[in-house]
Amino acid sequence: MSAAAPANGQGPLAIICGGGSLPAAIADSVTARGRAVLLFPLRGAADSAGVMRYPHHWLYVGQGGKFKRLARAAGCTDVVLIGAMVRPALWQIRPDFRTLLYLPRIMAAFRGGDDHLLSSIGRIFGEHGFHLRGAHEVAPEILMPEGQLGQELPSEANRADIALGFAFLHAAAPFDVGQAVVVAGRHVLAVEAAEGTDAMLARVAEMRAKGRVPPIAGVLVKAPKHGQDRRFDLPSIGPQTVKAAAEAGLSGIAVLAGSTIVAEPGEMIAAANRAKLFVIGASPETQQ
Known about the structure:
Radius of gyration: 20 Å
Number of strands: 12
Shape: globular
CATH superfamily of the largest domain: LpxI C-terminal catalytic domain
Distance between the termini: 46 Å
CATH topology of the largest domain: Cytidine Deaminase, domain 2
CATH class of the largest domain: Alpha Beta
Helix content: 25-40%
Strand order of the largest sheet: 5-12-10-8-6-7
Strand content: 15-25%
Largest sheet: 6 strands, mixed
Number of helices: 11
């Protein structure tokens, strides 16, 4: 399938799609602004339901040559990488001939955290004339605003936990680990690592069920790593985050405003109201 350039002179936006609803949400936003899109869903990661609504070409991880050929043929120069994806093992990559030429650099990029890996891949895209864009650059309305969403507000105890959560994430940033932490009673209960936010929250729920955490609700705090390349892997929240936070017995969710993507905001707010959880966007000054 192909995508034609819109009348405004911009070529289609290439969207390399991982899992979840975010790739389709970005495509919806961009097309509403009058720009065409061409999706490149990754096999084993992307959800087919959202992909099928737009022109698309399926890719295996490692098919850089195929991407370059198809994107250039469609007139794409801007590229967004968005959606959930588990970091593949090197043996799971299916490199085509062009990607094989970059395999030593890709292997070196794997020897580091996610930000190091994605920034290294971004440089390779740039060398081939593609401009990597952040999802927030092409669809700024997807970012969390400052202030309260929904009906609930955090208590003073919640606010103390939120401040500790942001301070922890800021201090941990040089180690290029996760972007989320659970805090209760000014005590860090869990830190996100390779498992992702939902799995971390499931771990908190399990610990709570076994009586291994104090009987205090606590909060989920999410923020990008300090100094992170924000074209890649901005933290995100959505209805599933609210569901997992409620199952973990938390009081609410706090994220960094202007630096966190909100998926399906209407559904997320409704879910938060039903669960009586607060959702707030904290001022960027919180992480200074």
